Amino acid sequence: MKWGNFLGYLIGDKNTIQHEAQSADKMSTEPLDTERFRLQQQEQFFSEATDIHGDLPAAYHHWSQHFVQPHLKELFKADDAIGFYASCLKVHISRIKPKGPLRIASIGCGEASAEIDLCKMLIGMGINDVTFIGVDIATGAIQRAQEAAQREGLDGHFSFSVMNFHDFFKANSFDVVIAHQVLHHVVELEALFEDIRVSIGRSGIFMSVDMIGRNGHMLWPEALAIFDRFWEA
């Protein structure tokens, strides 16, 4: 489950933090085109990694159950991020009454586990006429997403592309755009939001669940030193 991934970085997956820290160190010494270098690092890591965050710790479940879920239930009648998306989509569909399949773009979809869960939930709600278009820069992750959609019998509801976000939006328009736990990887958020705004037009919606910190999900150095001691215990 990707909801609350940032605690996977904070507590559950030391290797991920170390990898990102090492990537940041390499970027600082790269004299030219640091953005391309950063994207290459992420593409390689997320193409190869199949268990990015590991098991979420008990602290995450306590935080989620006591401080997040009550608000989701009150505002959206939802238990988690997938339920939140489904609730918003149900309302949106009732408003715009699409004449064809609802086109839902998911940027940085990775292996599309959240998107597949959302598709199954929508079908369970009687919302069958939906098409998910997933995009990611990680070729390996997209291959696993395609395989997962096929295993679930949902490949007719999905298509995937390996592409950067700007080129993706330049060539497409959508009813809905989802950014699930991905914005922390984006440096130029304003440029991305402008691409999304143009893509969805006046009637579309943008939905996201994320945690944006000082440097994505990376810890402050003084906080990382404390967590290092916990991991060594």
Topology:
Layout lengths: L4 H8 L1 H16 L4 H15 L9 H19 L4 H16 L5 E6 L5 H12 L5 E7 L2 H13 L6 E5 L2 H6 L5 E5 L8 H12 L4 E5 L11 H12 L1
Parallel strand pairs: 1-2, 1-4, 2-3, 4-5
Task: Explain the overall architecture.
The chain has a five-stranded parallel β-sheet. The protein is globular and about 55 Å long. The model is unreliable at about 1-30 (pLDDT under 50). Helix 2 (about 15-30) packs antiparallel against helix 3. The protein is an alpha/beta fold and about 230 residues long. The chain has one domain (about 5-225): Vaccinia Virus protein VP39 (Rossmann fold, 3-Layer(aba) Sandwich), CATH 3.40.50.150. The protein is built from ten helices and five strands, in the order αααααβαβαβαβαβα.
Question: What characteristics describe this protein?
Answer:
single chain, 233 residues, alpha/beta, Rossmann fold, 5-stranded parallel β-sheet, 55% helix, 12% strand, globular, disordered N terminus
**Could you list the spans in which at least 5 consecutive residues all have pLDDT below 50?**
1-32
- Number of continuous helical runs: 10
CATH architecture: 3-Layer(aba) Sandwich
Overall number of structural domains: 1
Query: What is the strand tally?
Result: 5
The major pleated sheet works out as: 5 strands, parallel
> Distance between termini?
27 Å
Can you give the helix content as a percent range? 55-70%
- What is the helix/strand order? HHHHHEHEHEHEHEH
Question: How are strands sequenced across the largest beta sheet?
Answer: 3-2-1-4-5
How would you state the average pLDDT, rounded?
80
Q: What structural class results from the helix and strand content?
A: alpha/beta
Radius of gyration: 18 Å
Provide the CATH superfamily. Answer: Vaccinia Virus protein VP39
